[in-house]
Amino acid sequence: MADRITLSRNYKPSHYKLSLKDLDFQAWTYQGTTTSSIALNAEELKIINSELLDSNSQGPRVLQSTACYQNGDTVTISFNEELVVARSYKLVIEYKGLLNAQSIGFYRAQYKALSEPPASVARGENGSPCIVCTQFQPIGARRAFPCFDEPNMKATFSLDIELPADQTAVSNMPVATTTTTTTTTEETTTEGRKRVSFETTPVMSTYLLAWAVGDLKYIETWTAHEYRGSKITVRFYATAGLEQQGRFAIEEAAKVMDFFSKTFDIEYPLAKMDLVAIPEFSFGAMENWGLITGKTNILIFDEKTSASTKKELISSIVSHEVAHQWFGNLVTMDWWDELWLNEGFATWAGNYAVNHLHPDWNIWERFMGEGMEGALIRDAMRSSHPILADVPDARNVHQVFDQISYQKSCAVLNMLANHMGVDTFLSGVSSYLKQNRHGNATAEHLWRALAEASGDDIVANIKPWIEKTGHPVLTVTHEAGQLILRQSRFLAVDDMKPEEDETVWWIPLGLRSFAEKEAPIINLSLSEKEMAMTAPDQLYLFNGSGTGFYRVEYPRDHLTKLGQKQDKLSVVEKLTILNSASALAFSGSGSSVALLGFMQAFADETSPQVWLRMLRDFSRLGQRFNNDAEIFRSIQALTRSVIGRMVQSLGWEPAAGESHLRAELRRSILEAAFLCESPSVKEAALQKNMMYAADPDKLTIDPSLLYLVWAAGAKASPADVVPTLIDQWQQSVSTESRVRFVRAMCIVQDPDVLRRLVLPFIYGTTPAGRVLRPTEMRPAIIMLAKQWPARRLQWEHVKTHWDAVVAKMGTSSSEGVGRVLDVCLSACTDAAEAEDIDAFFAEKNTEGFAMTLAKVKDGILNSLKEIIATRDALVLFVRLVGVRPRHGLNQLVGIWVAKVGDAVARRVDDVFVVVVVVVVRGLDDAVNGALDGVVAPAREEVAGVDDNGVGNGRGVDKLARRRANLQAAAVILKEQRDGAIVLVFAGAELADFIFKDVCLDLWVMEQSEGIVRGVDEAVKMRLVKPEAHGDGPHDLDVQLLAHFEKGHHFLAEPIHLALCRPVVPKVFVRLAANLEALLEVRGPLLRPLYRRRRRRSSSAASAILGRRRRRRRRRNDELLAALAKIPAVGGGVGQTQRFLVGGRLGEKSGGARKDGGDGGGRDGVAREVDEAGGLEAVQDGAGGGGALGGRAVEEEGKVNEL
């Protein structure tokens, strides 16, 4: 590691006495006096005077400073005498500081008052009231007072503050005294002020000191247990009117304090605990000892406006910050490179506490799906860093406050705790805390304590996890009855260099066999590059507990089997499988196509966490291609199809007594559907928008969904609605509603509105009160970065107004600029963007955010490689499986279609068709029976018998005729050049024809129990109630249903996937049309897989949908013209033709014209388009078949346009 830039260790502080006065709320300045002892940190502070008091045995004396030299964030004070070693001195410094507006150091924070505050309260530029408060982590204390601002330069602190008498001051410790003061100058005498002095703190680091002043009110509660003879008071402070909304937060804090005091066997050491809601705050919250501060909209819970999921967020944040009272405050890391000892432990202990208090919340499942997964994704980048980070300069430490220091370190601790046993782990942790109480520690102190508790060599196992970048992938292969396990470093792109794969990790395998449903997890581990073990007889799973911080790559057939055994998998196991499958797919060692197919097997999942996991993958995939219009629309359609059933199931209204997890899933599902342009969701949101405008109180949806309601209006009329949203944002006193207004306007994609209204609102500085403050910008930047072209327009705005952006975030706040760049550029995906970023920053000083830029460019490189590797296969897949059918069969088929698409896209250039052939038992007999019924009335003519009963030689054998039709269709198939998927329910005869005469390659699916059930479900769903689809019963329906009722399954043999190249989708449907014509029934097995009743749109929705209708009509006309050019293959038999449109089956709906043919040999084409522009049918009457060809089809509702 590089040499650290630190203050001299020739002296160290023991105590600070800090006195603040003359808080000027007009000039935003203050004065202070601090006593400490000689080169120390000071930034944006003006040193007025300094002197050194020498208390020696001969009596006290004063040493006046001879020079004071300030350089950047340090000040050096010189004296005319040499200081004596091992003697105590008192350094007294008078200085003047600034109350800045950058949320760092001692700063001012504006808010919307619920009631008129006292006249003495500070006012911002636009007249909004302010509180003044502090945020010192990591190096902000030097902006508030001269100090030794390094974590291992601990001291005690005593603080007194002069403030207006009608305001409140809070700090780490309880108030010691309050006195009335009068300030007299040459010009004025100021009365009505007071001086509040606080008790002396324990020994602690400078970054843990904190205070706040303003119109603050509080509520309080107490711990259940007594400490040193009394219960501890827990208070919640907020600006007047918000204090009651902190009730849940302080109740959680009190419970967690009791829990940790018992768990760690160390009592909470202070006399009180306060939580303070800060209106402008750079982070979520801060663990100042005895005075936890946090962003107001995160800590409060409003029964009217807060989402039901908010309590879990509050509990997690409060538990994390209370855990810091032990991890970070009582025992502090020695230097910033050991930040993980603070943050990793606080994250782990916070989750542990939430799980104890709320086991039904399944917090560890959420951690697996979100926190741990986010860390795995970040850690797979080359720009990642070890948990034990290299931080030579504390001014850059903000760059390692990231997923590695928080989430990866938590995951590694959790992996270690699971291996040791949680009780043993906690015993070692308790020893670590006791041995280093009030001091600084390193990882070595922790390893010794854990080794003593467990008796194991913890260091050898865990050191690579802490000191090396990255994590492994465990690759599993089958060889001669054995499992071969190999570990290698996992990278986000599959281009490992040998020198990058030298680390050997200790990997707890967590092997579970499915021989028994509740089979125990076998505690094996891998500590070498490769090992062999006997293969289990049954299905198996690695990392069964989900605590291992690594990926698992199974053989493809084994992964498929795991996907088919969902009933035997826990939620944790499903997340483990999906997380690894996703990472491998996006890295290029797997395939995003295979991932999409695999995820379709989980489409009936009920766990919110599993769904949220899959939604993140769809979102990630969409962001990869959101500037590629051709594929992005298809990905949107695919997403809509997968989540369609959940949209219907969850709806907009909360169910009585539902869990907050289900409410969160509803928000995520509806948001995904809205962003994917779901017509039904957009229409519903517009209707609710009108309801809200008429009477907000009558809209009973979850408050977290309001932003979608407002966004619907903004997308419908952006130029009119966005200014209104800005007005409502400005007027709102609800911090949560303000965030929702911002998110709603950022969904707008109108370039003019974005440039003229939205971007100036986010990044501008004037007019005050009508632009976002720096701490409010993040949600807006994220929303724009996720969408195209908003992402490009946002980056252009940042470049054009770079100096203004830097000024807004703070001229010396590289941390703030880095956060803007991180979220603004993290979704960039192409080479042009990477080149543009490099060019823009080529001549700029990027020291404060160099790691952020490296991460951004790493992400772009990874995305670019993934796009190049997967685009063609993905295009193919979304054409093949554009819509998820509503039955279990096709969910399973989707997995195999993905495999076929992935395999073939790697070896051929032109597109193709995959025919999924389901051979239905008894279908041949049913077809023959149906044909007999159709042909019987005309048997004599067909058989070639004249009026005298003499054969005329013109008879055609039924079977020969059927074969002729199928062969004619095959000729057309071989002449076309496009691609699609066709699902064919076939008898053995038709299947044999496809396999022998049409397909180029063939795959066979395993005939599992799930597939058998899926076929039964798929077929029966079209037979039990055919009248529900507008049809009456048919002979084919009756015969097949009777077959099923005898107890037989429909599936006759394994499902085959036949590859046919090159063809067009319409032609394969003509094959289906030929079959249907031969049967002369209305195709109960060939109906559209989706249908719904047509609904009349509201006037607002109709206006918005108008353009979509016109586009559909044009597309339908083009398709009809193409269809008309395809020769009929029916030998004069009229056909009702159903065909694929963008991967979906379409069918005629309502009022078909009956002039399909003139009976004289011409082909007549009749068509009709419904009022919304959705193509519903083509009726084609071939020569001599006009009457049959003109058969009307009952109204079935239009194809579901997702």
UniProtKB/TrEMBL annotation:
<dbReference type="InterPro" id="IPR014782">
    <property type="entry name" value="Peptidase_M1_dom"/>
</dbReference>
<dbReference type="GO" id="GO:0005737">
    <property type="term" value="C:cytoplasm"/>
</dbReference>
<keyword id="KW-0482">Metalloprotease</keyword>
<dbReference type="InterPro" id="IPR034016">
    <property type="entry name" value="M1_APN-typ"/>
</dbReference>
<keyword id="KW-0479">Metal-binding</keyword>
<dbReference type="InterPro" id="IPR042097">
    <property type="entry name" value="Aminopeptidase_N-like_N_sf"/>
</dbReference>
<dbReference type="GO" id="GO:0042277">
    <property type="term" value="F:peptide binding"/>
</dbReference>
<feature type="domain" description="ERAP1-like C-terminal">
    <location>
        <begin position="539"/>
        <end position="860"/>
    </location>
</feature>
<keyword id="KW-0645">Protease</keyword>
<dbReference type="GO" id="GO:0043171">
    <property type="term" value="P:peptide catabolic process"/>
</dbReference>
<dbReference type="GO" id="GO:0016020">
    <property type="term" value="C:membrane"/>
</dbReference>
<keyword id="KW-0378">Hydrolase</keyword>
<feature type="active site" description="Proton acceptor">
    <location>
        <position position="321"/>
    </location>
</feature>
<dbReference type="InterPro" id="IPR001930">
    <property type="entry name" value="Peptidase_M1"/>
</dbReference>
<feature type="region of interest" description="Disordered">
    <location>
        <begin position="1144"/>
        <end position="1202"/>
    </location>
</feature>
<dbReference type="Pfam" id="PF17900">
    <property type="entry name" value="Peptidase_M1_N"/>
</dbReference>
<dbReference type="GO" id="GO:0070006">
    <property type="term" value="F:metalloaminopeptidase activity"/>
</dbReference>
<dbReference type="Pfam" id="PF11838">
    <property type="entry name" value="ERAP1_C"/>
</dbReference>
<dbReference type="InterPro" id="IPR027268">
    <property type="entry name" value="Peptidase_M4/M1_CTD_sf"/>
</dbReference>
<feature type="domain" description="Aminopeptidase N-like N-terminal">
    <location>
        <begin position="32"/>
        <end position="208"/>
    </location>
</feature>
<protein>
    <submittedName>
        <fullName>Aminopeptidase 2, mitochondrial</fullName>
    </submittedName>
</protein>
<feature type="binding site">
    <location>
        <position position="320"/>
    </location>
    <ligand>
        <name>Zn(2+)</name>
    </ligand>
</feature>
<dbReference type="GO" id="GO:0008270">
    <property type="term" value="F:zinc ion binding"/>
</dbReference>
<feature type="domain" description="Peptidase M1 membrane alanine aminopeptidase">
    <location>
        <begin position="248"/>
        <end position="465"/>
    </location>
</feature>
<dbReference type="InterPro" id="IPR024571">
    <property type="entry name" value="ERAP1-like_C_dom"/>
</dbReference>
<dbReference type="Pfam" id="PF01433">
    <property type="entry name" value="Peptidase_M1"/>
</dbReference>
<feature type="compositionally biased region" description="Basic and acidic residues">
    <location>
        <begin position="1192"/>
        <end position="1202"/>
    </location>
</feature>
<feature type="compositionally biased region" description="Basic and acidic residues">
    <location>
        <begin position="1145"/>
        <end position="1170"/>
    </location>
</feature>
<dbReference type="GO" id="GO:0006508">
    <property type="term" value="P:proteolysis"/>
</dbReference>
<feature type="binding site">
    <location>
        <position position="324"/>
    </location>
    <ligand>
        <name>Zn(2+)</name>
    </ligand>
</feature>
<keyword id="KW-0031">Aminopeptidase</keyword>
<feature type="site" description="Transition state stabilizer">
    <location>
        <position position="406"/>
    </location>
</feature>
<feature type="binding site">
    <location>
        <position position="343"/>
    </location>
    <ligand>
        <name>Zn(2+)</name>
    </ligand>
</feature>
<keyword id="KW-0862">Zinc</keyword>
<dbReference type="InterPro" id="IPR050344">
    <property type="entry name" value="Peptidase_M1_aminopeptidases"/>
</dbReference>
<dbReference type="InterPro" id="IPR045357">
    <property type="entry name" value="Aminopeptidase_N-like_N"/>
</dbReference>
<comment type="similarity">
    <text>Belongs to the peptidase M1 family.</text>
</comment>
